[in-house]
Design goal:
Distance between the termini: 35 Å
Number of helices: 3
Order of helices and strands: HEEEEEHH
Strand content: 35-45%
Number of domains: 1
Helix content: 25-40%
Radius of gyration: 15 Å
Strand order of the largest sheet: 1-2-5-4-3
Length: about 110
């Protein structure tokens, strides 16, 4: 549980998104972080309206910044709201993670200089 809480804070996930599990392959020097949504509603990106989760799209995986020397991959299942089935793409925290990683890199760069 410590590891999941640690990575949830490290990734600076928005409320409602948590690190569900962290697995590693020490031979390949890889870490796999499973992110999950614990909300029953998500905000529509276009209208701002709260929509119930309707379905789950296939899980995807993204390469993240390394954790120490280990390649880090984030896996998440896309969530689809009723409104999204009519017109748009599924929701995922990965865009938020990318912004968080960028902020972290910029703040580290500023503190080094």
């Amino acid at each position: 549980m410590f590891t999941e809480n640690f990575f949830t804070k490290l990734l600076d996930l928005e409320d409602g998104w948590i690190v569900e599990s962290v697995d590693s392959n020490l031979t390949k020097e890889e870490i796999y972080i499973q992110v999950a949504c614990v909300l029953d509603q998500l905000e529509d990106a276009v209208t701002g309206e709260l929509c119930k989760i309707y379905d789950y799209a296939p899980e995807r995986s993204w390469r993240h910044l390394d954790t120490m020397q280990y390649k880090t991959y984030i896996k998440v299942g896309y969530l689809v709201s009723r409104r999204q089935t009519e017109r748009s793409r599924p929701s995922s925290p990965i865009g938020l993670l990318a912004m968080s990683a960028t902020r972290s890199c910029l703040s580290m760069r500023q503190s080094i200089c």
